[in-house]
């Protein structure tokens, strides 16, 4: 049977993040990608200049259209910028019995806020307990747990444990915003804490890294991998895409990672 994944996220007109990055990632990892667009952004490598939210009814209809026809093996949820969107997504995913990989997109790589302040509580109450895995970066993990931004691995582990205690099936606190020679992520699934490290890369092309990682986890799950294996594969894929993406010349700001590095060189 063909592996199918669904991304529920915002559209990035610049092609480096959001729905576009997710669909590229699904394809690169051998999965047929479907989508439910939650918002349309006017965006490029320099930043976000406009955002228009899709109505909750249309978001729900997109999810229903995919899930009533196709055997969706995994779901990734990205940009859900307001309470009404979160409610619609949580309702439909629960109705279809789907537990997503949740990338709690709060601020874009450019620094633009993508989640309204009053929606943080709804995200924690409705989507966090529903998710199979939450994948916050350091600032997002701090916001979700009400703690300072983690300065070391022990603090990252404490935040991962707190997210699982708050209802997430598992948590992957990402250390890409940290310092040091290694980029270290901390994974906790309620049983085991894992340290996942990769050499930190010197590249300005980091747009869409969070979207790409969470989509890669969903792709692995759709192909039947267990969660820990899917997380490890996703970490390896993103590292290779970052390394290859350093050679891309796209736009005048923070460029994208190279999703198709296995098929064509930068």
Question: How would you describe what is shown here?
Answer:
The protein is α/β, with parallel strands linked by helices and 266 residues long. The protein has one domain: UDP-N-acetylmuramoyl-L-alanine:D-glutamate ligase. Helices cover 37% and strands 20% of the residues. The chain has helices spanning 18-28, 56-67, 83-95, 120-127, 138-145, 153-165, 209-222, 227-245, and strands spanning 4-12, 32-44, 47-53, 74-77, 101-102, 133-134, 171-173, 182-188, 193-199. The chain has a six-stranded mixed beta sheet with strand order 3-2-1-4-5-6. Helix 2 packs parallel to helix 3 (83-95), helix 3 packs parallel to helix 4 (120-127) and helix 5 packs across helix 6 (153-165). The radius of gyration is 17 Å and the shape is globular. The model has no long low-confidence stretch (mean pLDDT 94).
> Based on CA inertia axes, which overall geometry fits?
globular
Which bin fits the share of residues in helices?
25-40%
The CATH topology turns out to be: UDP-N-acetylmuramoyl-L-alanine:D-glutamate ligase
Q: Strand-and-helix sequence, N→C?
A: EHEEHEHEHEHHEEEHH
Estimate what percentage of residues fall within beta strands: 15-25%
Distance between the termini: 33 Å
State the total count of DSSP E strands.
9
pLDDT < 50 stretches: none
- How many structurally independent domains? 1
Q: How many DSSP helices? A: 8
> The biggest beta sheet, please?
6 strands, mixed
Q: Residue-averaged pLDDT, rounded?
A: 94
CATH class label? Alpha Beta
What is the SS-derived class?
A: alpha/beta
CATH architecture: 3-Layer(aba) Sandwich
């Amino acid at each position: 049977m063909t592996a199918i994944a669904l991304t529920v996220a915002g559209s990035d007109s610049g092609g480096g993040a959001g729905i576009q990055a997710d669909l590229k990632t699904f394809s690169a990892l051998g999965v047929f990608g479907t989508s439910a667009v939650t918002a349309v952004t006017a965006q490029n490598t320099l930043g976000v200049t406009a955002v228009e939210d899709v109505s909750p009814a249309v978001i729900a209809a997109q999810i229903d259209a995919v899930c009533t026809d196709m055997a969706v093996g995994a779901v990734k949820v990205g940009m859900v910028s307001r309470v009404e969107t979160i409610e619609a997504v949580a309702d439909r995913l629960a109705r279809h019995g789907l537990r997503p990989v949740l990338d709690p997109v709060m601020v874009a790589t450019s620094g633009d806020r993508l989640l309204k302040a009053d929606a943080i509580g709804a995200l924690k109450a409705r989507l966090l307990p529903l998710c199979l895995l939450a994948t916050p970066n350091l600032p997002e993990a701090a916001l979700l747990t009400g703690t300072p931004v983690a300065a070391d691995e022990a603090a990252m582990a404490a935040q991962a444990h707190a997210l699982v205690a708050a209802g997430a099936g598992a948590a992957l606190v990402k250390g890409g915003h940290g310092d040091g020679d290694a980029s270290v992520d901390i994974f906790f699934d309620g049983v085991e804490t894992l340290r996942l490290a990769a050499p930190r890369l010197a590249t300005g092309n980091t747009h869409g890294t969070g979207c790409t990682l969470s989509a890669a986890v969903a792709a692995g799950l759709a192909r039947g991998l267990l969660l820990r294996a899917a997380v490890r594969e996703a970490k390896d894929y993103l590292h290779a895409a970052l390394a290859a993406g350093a050679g891309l010349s796209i736009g005048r700001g923070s460029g994208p990672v190279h999703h198709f590095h296995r098929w064509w060189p930068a």
